[in-house]
Specification:
Length: about 130
Amino acid sequence: MQIMISAELAPYRIGSGQYIFLMAIAFQQPITQKVLSEKLLVDKTTTAKAIAKLEAEGYVRREVDSADNRYQLLYLTESGHEVVPKVQEALGRVKNKTRKGITDEEYDSLVGLLKTVLRNLSEQEET
C-alpha cells in the first residue's frame, strides 16, 4: 500500500510517511508536534522530520503558542488546504483497490483489528 500511496502522492511532493501528519493537522488545527506524535503513535523525531518536510513544501506553518511560548502550533497553509482534497482523493483510490473482494463488514473488522494491534504494540510495558 505504501508504494501505491507514494506513487499517488508523488505529484504533490508528499511522501507516504508524511500524508498522515498532513491529514491529522487538517482535521485538528492548531496542534502541537507533541500532541501530533501522541495522536499518531509516532516518535517525536519522526514527527519533527515529517513536519519539516511538509513545511519545506509549503503545506504547513508553525506559530508560537501564545498561551505557552515553549510550544509551536501547527497550521495548514493555503497550499496545504488546497492539497488536502487531492490527498484524500488519492488515498480513496488506493483504499478502493484494497477493498476489492472484501465486504464492508470484513473491511471494518480488518481495520479494527489492525488498530488493536497497533495500540498493543505502542503500549509501554509496565514496570
